[in-house]
Write a structure and sequence with these properties.
alpha/beta; Aldehyde Dehydrogenase, Chain A, domain 2; seven-stranded mixed beta sheet; six-stranded mixed beta sheet
Length: about 500
């Protein structure tokens, strides 16, 4: 793949925009221009949707389930065969450490195809025998059909992983897709088009249109009347716009949106586990994880000890580019996002926070000085009503606050418009279950964080989203369940 000229992938071919419009793709590590990306308009979206509809009516729609599953296994294998290419592309776009991307992004991105290809073969539907007045009866059989053309709007923080998390089950269920990746991270989504062709996936099954949101590819795709369902991961504000677009025609939506997640550390927690888990949840991927922790509540008896250790661990993080084998934290995704995160760093001070570590831009070598770097940052002392406590920052930062009672911390954790995830640290199993049941989130981890079984439900409560994906929940979204009633 030519990383300097990124084109759309429509109906099995790489094509430029009819308008000739392009935009820059910049490296987060040093802000240099990596290449030019074609910006899609209505013409490209129309072509992609038409190709997807034709594939549904053609070979893909007629393909037996076992053959479709075998193709998706081949796609996963081919991603792993081209592992280094996907790794280079992902790190070029995001700037994240290769150690992270090689452990999470690429292998899990490939695995999504196998997991859902296997799931569709093993998830049963329902069947009921019904008594009738003539005593002969009837039988009801559940039947799943593909939903149709799926619009996939994927984010920039885990570009391959979160895109295939949607594309994998969508294709396994027999749908076709048009992916609009984030304009910040176009490379691995485009590279996957080459893999689809190599593996013999029919043209039109997998399509990619690049661009932005308003008055660009994103808006044109979500508004298109021949798109049957929309799945999105990103900001809550954008999710609201997509939900409004989907309301016309009553199309299904799955929205995984923002989070302002809380970690709760009780005084009986294993402190080593709690420190290690909180460090990852606050700072991994430079804090750019929807499930990440930005509010940390620690029981008063261990608050000071926890604070000292967390600050020491944050100061020990090594910031560097993907090629640095010792780096465990990379840059933010863009200069725009860097400005946003730094504005919250300043806001925290303005609102009265005590800065425990970080709070600015780290010194970097000259060749990296124009990159999107920020320091891992920890505060304490803010009021519960502060904007830094209530608004999602999406950077490597967290605020520490002591609490005394279980009832108090449940109220604090729930006092937020978001409800995506939480991490609870305690060795008391009864307390763990009791508290987890009361936290208003879609995912509650106990003595762990980001431990994901792909068979389980994934999604958020409140302003963190609509719907669930994962396992049978993905199959329910990407299929229409029809009841066939047979009179005997």
């Amino acid at each position: 793949m030519d990383t300097q000229s990124i084109r759309h992938f429509i109906n099995g071919a790489f094509v430029a925009s009819a308008s000739g419009k392009c935009f820059e793709n910049r490296s987060p590590t040093d802000n240099r221009v990596i290449g030019q990306v074609c910006e899609g308009g209505r013409e490209e979206v129309d072509a992609a949707v038409a190709a997807a509809k034709a594939a549904l009516a053609g070979p893909w729609g007629q393909m037996p389930m076992a053959e479709r599953a075998a193709l998706l296994h081949r796609v996963a294998d081919r991603i792993n065969e081209r592992f280094e290419e996907f790794l280079e592309a992902e790190c070029l776009d995001t700037g994240k450490p290769k150690s992270l991307a090689s452990h999470i992004d690429i292998p899990r991105g490939a695995a999504n195809f196998k997991v859902f290809a296997d799931a569709i073969k093993n998830v049963p539907t329902e069947s009921f025998r019904l008594d009738t007045p003539d005593n002969l009866g009837a039988v009801n059989i559940g039947h799943r059909s593909p939903k149709g053309v799926i619009a996939v709007i994927s984010p920039w923080n885990l570009p391959l992983l979160l895109m295939t998390w949607k594309v994998g089950p969508a294709l396994a269920c027999g749908n076709t897709v048009i992916v609009k990746p984030s304009e910040e991270t176009p490379l691995t989504t485009t590279l996957l088009g080459e893999v689809m062709n190599e593996c013999g996936v029919p043209a039109g099954v997998y399509n990619v249109v690049h661009g932005f949101g308003p008055d660009s590819a994103g808006a044109f795709l979500t508004e298109h009347p021949d798109v049957d369902a929309i799945t999105f991961t990103g900001e809550t504000r954008t999710g609201e716009i997509i939900a409004a677009a989907a309301a016309k025609g009553l199309r299904d939506v799955s929205l995984e949106c923002g989070g302002k997640n809380a970690a709760i550390v009780f005084d009986d927690a294993d402190l080593d586990k709690a420190i290690e888990g909180t460090m990852r949840s606050a700072f991994v991927n430079c804090g750019q994880v929807c499930l990440g922790t930005e509010r940390v509540y620690v029981q008063s008896d261990i608050y000071d000890a926890f604070k000292v250790r967390l600050v020491e661990a944050a100061k020990a993080l090594r910031i560097g580019p993907p090629g640095d084998p010792d780096a465990n934290m990379g840059p933010l995704i863009s200069k725009e996002h860097q400005e946003k995160v730094l504005s919250y760093y300043q806001l925290a001070i303005d609102e009265g926070a005590t800065l425990l570590t970080g709070g600015g831009v780290p010194p970097m070598p000259d060749e990296l000085s124009d990159g999107c770097w920020v320091e891992p940052t920890i505060w304490e002392g803010l009021d519960d009503s502060a904007r830094v406590i209530r608004e999602e920052i999406f950077g490597p930062c967290c605020h520490l606050r002591p609490f005394d009672t279980e009832e108090e911390v449940i109220a604090l954790a729930n006092d937020n418009p978001y409800g995506l995830a939480t991490a609870i640290w305690t060795e008391n199993s009864s307390r763990a279950i009791r508290v987890a049941e009361q936290i208003e989130v879609g995912i509650a981890w106990v003595n762990s964080w980001f431990l994901r079984d792909l068979r389980t439900a994934f999604g958020g409560a409140k302003q963190s989203g609509i719907g669930r994906e994962g396992g049978v929940h993905s199959l329910e979204f990407y299929t229409e369940l029809k009841n066939i009633c047979i009179k005997l």
